[in-house]
Fold Peroxiredoxin.
Amino acid sequence: MSEPHTERPLQPGDRAPNVVLDAITRQGKVAIDDFRGHKPVLVGLFRGLHCAFCRRQIAAMSQLESALREKGIDSLTVVNTPIERARLYFRYHPLPNLLAASDPERVSHRAFGLPKLEFTETETNWPYKLSNDAVMSMRIDLPGELPEPMDPRAATTYLDEVDGYEFTEADKQMIATGEGQLVGQFLLDRDGVVRWSFTEVPEGGRYMFGVPTPQELMSAASQVAG
């Protein structure tokens, strides 16, 4: 059986594929089909825990978990981190009621149509290639987290130092194979159909390292719950 794959991010109206992954925060497997026919689910597909921005995006998503649950919507966080490394991280950085799954091969990212950027010397062909100059010209503005707007690499170094994040061999392997993986969040109805999404793909990278506003996400959740 070949793995599901799509050439563009899934859009509202698309049926989400089934993906089966190792659960991090409980034993066994977790699958998209676990929710289909039962409950809507917000699926967050992130880079690995080695990514300082993703650690914050995961925390932001988890903060809405109880509000989503009140609307009858479950949440699933997927990280491009090997299972044992991910379990160790969440043991020391627990997030209440977090259901997380490990996807070191990024099967779910491809299935939901999230491309992987290749970083190049001079060529930019968004969302497949991005030049070093384009990367360095970007500015990440995280008030309260960064002292000033910074380029992604400087911001990453700063945030990793603030977090005291210690990179393991598993982290380094994920960086080597998936550093440019784009990420996103997809809200599926109880039939497993996408009703809302937020990804890094649109508008030439304008949304890279960003998160949807809680108001935007909860507004979409209200429509799915209704």
Remarks:
- The first helix runs from residue 52 to 63.
- The helical segments are 52-63, 65-70, 83-92, 107-111, 132-137, 152-163, 169-178, 214-225.
- The chain has eight helices and nine strands.
- The mean pLDDT is 93.
